[in-house]
Amino acid sequence: MGRPDEVSSLLAMRRFALLAAATLLVSPMLAMASGDSDGDGIPDDLEAATARNVFVQGSSSGFVIRSRSIGASPEDAFAIAFSDGNFTVQYFPISSGQATVSYQLAFRRILEVYLENGEWKEENRTELSWNYASARQSEVRTTDGETEVLYSVTSASRTVTVTVGSTNRFARVGGNRLLSPMEVTVDVLIRGWNYTRANSQLALQVEINGTGVPRVDETSDDETAGWAMNESSVKVSSLQDSLFFAWDRMATVDGVPTPVDTTPLEPSPDGVGMSFVYGRGNVIVHDPKIGAVSNAFWSIWSRPTTTAPAFDATIYVLGIAVAAGLVGVTVFLRRRRRTE
Question: Which residues contact 26 (CB under 8 A, 6 or more apart)?
Fold first, then answer.
């Protein structure tokens, strides 16, 4: 047995080695866990800071969604109402004040179309009216654990179902899409159409009427921010305030991702109109969004924050090697002491 001072020295080195090992191994894990715990790609601190109060109420003739910011000065709000086949969208830069910008959007009709000499020709059409008795409100868990409130309504012909989904914070919703708290999904399902022409396709005609002149952006704000891919939008603005209607440039047709052809905005009886032309199929799913450019959100988002260090596999492996080396040194020294 070694002298007391040797034993004490060896014990101290062993404790140091174990402490170093624990520090090197645990620190990267803590850094990894503190950044984005739900894996939705948004840092936890920003996701919590930009969460909103969301109120949803249904009725026999539609529904209303109102979203209000938390923790900004001033607080803002946006509201989306669906009634008589129209979405009415408003933005309030001061939540208790007046709306500064708004628009109405309607899915007017389904057209059966075909290409002739490079132009779309109409073969058949169905005007869309809505069966409010079919309206359903439900809640689901998103893929990252958030609560999503869904409100669905089906057309009287049962050909089209529109499902609106809202959350109070960033969430990964159906299809692993990232939904921000300043917008709602407006998923469109078309099924059971009886085609009357062998080479025809279906088009969904949309009309928009706003307090500002609608304009098309080939790249949506969400895609610019890195929250979406292959997304375009129509934006309605008044001075510095804006609302948008965005859509994925791909739809799912009979389970297969298929490009969506969009016709230009043109004057219509109720403002301006455009059409989404889909690939031919029995079941068509398309995923537009409605939302606001929130001043409150961006004021919170732009605040300085302390970001947890990212997990680095190189440091982690190096930590294991250093810890193993420290333990090995203590074993070597102890054996050497015994042989002296």
Answer: none
Residue 74, preceding bond cis, omega within 30 degrees?
Answer: yes
Question: Which two structure tokens, joined as six digits, stand for 86?
Answer: 């129209």
- Six token digits for residue 99: 């709306």
Q: Are residues 89 and 170 located together in one domain of the fold?
A: yes
User: How crowded is residue 82: how many other Cβ atoms within 10 Å of its Cβ?
Assistant: 26
Nearest to 296 by CA among 97, 42, 41: 97
In a domain, 50, yes or no: no
Q: Which range of residues forms the domain containing residue 11?
A: 4-39+310-339
Q: How far apart are CA 300 and CA 72, in angstroms?
A: 7
- For residue range 29-68, list pLDDT tens digits in order: 444 444 999 888 999 999 999 999 999 998 878 899 999 9
Number of domains in the chain: 2
All residues at 6 or more sequence positions from 23 whose CB lies less than 8 Å from its CB, including other chains? none
Q: Is there a single domain that holds both residue 322 and residue 201?
A: no
91 with 9, same domain: the answer is no
pTM: 0.79
Q: Is residue 289 part of a domain?
A: yes
Residue 60 lies in a domain: no
286-317 tens-digit pLDDT = 999 999 999 999 999 988 755 444 444 454 44
Do 247 and 334 lie in a common domain? Answer: no
Find where tokens 């866990």 sit.
Answer: 33
Structure token digits, residue 137: 């409100």
Category of 172 on φ-ψ map: left (φ > 0), alpha (ψ -120 to 50) or beta = beta
Q: Are residues 178 and 322 in the same domain?
A: no
d(CA 259, CA 199): 17
- C-alpha span between 334 and 316 (Å, rounded): 28
Tell me, yes or no, whether 135 and 34 share the same domain.
Answer: no
Q: How far is residue 323's CA from residue 336's CA, in Å, rounded to a whole number?
A: 20
